[in-house]
Write a structure and sequence with these properties.
Layout lengths: L1 H4 L3 H34 L2 H13 L5 H22 L7 E6 L4 E4 L23 E7 L2 E10 L2 E8 L3 H46 L19 H48 L3 H33 L5 E5 H18 L3 E5 L3 E7 H18 L5 E9 L2 E8 L30 H12 L2 E6 L6 E7 L7 E3 L2
Parallel strand pairs: 7-9
Antiparallel strand pairs: 1-2, 1-5, 3-4, 4-5, 6-8, 8-13, 9-10, 10-12, 11-12
Subcellular location: Membrane
Keywords: ATP-binding, Kinase, Membrane, Nucleotide-binding, Phosphoprotein, Transferase, Transmembrane, Transmembrane helix, Two-component regulatory system
GO molecular function: ATP binding; phosphorelay sensor kinase activity
Amino acid sequence: MKRWLSPTLTQRVMLALVLAFMSVWSVLLAFDYLAFKQAMRTNSGLHQLSGALAAALAPVEDAEHAKSAVAVSAVMVNHLRREGGQLPGEVLFELADRQGRVLYRTPGPGAQEWNWALPENGPADGPPQVRDQAIGGRMYWTIMRATGRWTLHIAEPQVGDTTVLGWLSRELLPYLLLAFPVVLVVLWLAVRSGLRPLRLLAKRIDTRAPDDLSPVNLQLKYAELQPVVTALDNLLAQLRRQVQRERAFVQDAAHELRTPLAVIATQAHAIVREPDTYARQQAQAHLDHAIARSSHLVGQLLELATLDETPAGTLATVDVAGHLRHLLAQKAGLALACDIELSLDAPETLHWTLDMAAFQSIVHNLLDNALRYVHAGCRIAVAAAASDGALTVSVADDGPGIAEDQRELVFERFYRVRGTTAPGSGLGLAIVRQAARRMGGTVCISPGLDQRGCAFHFRLQAFGHAIGATPP
C-alpha cells in the first residue's frame, strides 16, 4: 500500500495525462458550446423547419388551406418533440397575411403576448430574422419567414446553458473514454522505457564500493538524462580532489610536525640527562623554540581547517582603516627591533561590511609574512582604499621578493620559496587565499615597492560596498 501511496514520477505523468484529458474535454466542450450558440443563430433546426414550412406555403393561395397546413405542422412537430423527451415545452406557430392579420396562432398560455413589430407596408421577402423573446414568462428563440402572401412566425423554447452543456458533455465523453486507455498504455510504456536508464544508473551506483569515487562513465541514449550523469561525474571528481587534498594535508601536517616533535623529545631528554647548567639552558631554549613552532603550526592548521569547513561568518560593518592602524601599532615594536619601516596609506575612516574574522586572518598573515621575510632596513607599506564599489587592501615591501615562476605556488599549502632560510610552515598565504575565497574576494601578487620585493593585493566586492570614506 505504501508503494502506491508514495509519490513517483509515473504517478505524476499519469496525473498529468488525466489533467490533459480534462483540459481537452473542457476546450472541446467550450468550442462545441460556442458552435451550438452560433448554429442557433444561423443554421439551427428552427431555420430548417421555418424554411421548409415557408416553402410549402409559398404556392398556397387560400387562407384556410395555409392555416390548415400550419396547424398540422404544429401538431406533428410538437408530437415528435414530446416523443423525444429531451426538449422542453412546445413550439409556437403563428401565420399572418401580408397585411398583418393573424390567421393562426398556437393556442396556449401566453399566446397573446407574441407580438411582432411589422413594417408599415408589411414584411418584405428576405433572410430569416432570429431574436430572443419572452412569451408567457419564458424565453424563446423566434424566427420570421416572409414569403408570397404569408408571414410565418415560429418560436422554440430556449434550452438552458446547463442543459446544453450536459448534452455536449455526454456526446464528448464516450470518445474521451475510448481514447484514454489507449493513450494511457502508450504513455505508460514510454515512461517505463524512459526511466530504465535511471534505474540502470541507480543500480550501478548502488553496487559501487563505499570508497569508489571513479567516474560513472555511463552513456545514456536519452539526451535529457545525460546531464545527470555528467553532473554526478563532476561531483565525484570534486570529492576525489577533496579526498586527495585531505590526504595531502594530513601527510604534510605530519611531516611538518615531525621535526619540532623530534626536537622537543631530544631537548627534553637533554634537560633530564645533561649535568652542565649552560647545556641545560641551551636545551631549554631549543625546547621552547620547538614548542612555539609546534604551537604556531597547530594554530595555523586549525585556522585553515576552520576556513575550509565553515561557511562565511557573520557580516559586520567595521572601520577598516582604524583596524589596520591598530594592527600596525601592535607590530611596531617588532618592526623597530628588526629595523623595518612600517607605513599606512588609508583614509581617516573607511567603513566596510565584511566577515571580520576572515579579514583579520588575511591582514595578520600578510603582515606577519612580510615581517618574517624582509631584511633589516627594508620597508613595508600597507594601503587601503575603496573604488568602483570594491575594497582593496595591499601589503607591499622591498625585500627579496618571490620569483615570478613561484608566485602562484606560494598560495599552496606547505609550499616554501626556494632558498628561504626564515622559519615558517608555508601555510600563511594558503590561509590568506582561503579566507579571501570564503569572503567572496580575491588575492593576487605583484612586484613590490620600487619594483622590488613583492606586493599582495586583497580585493573584496561581493560581500559589501563602501558606506563612507573620510580622507585623511
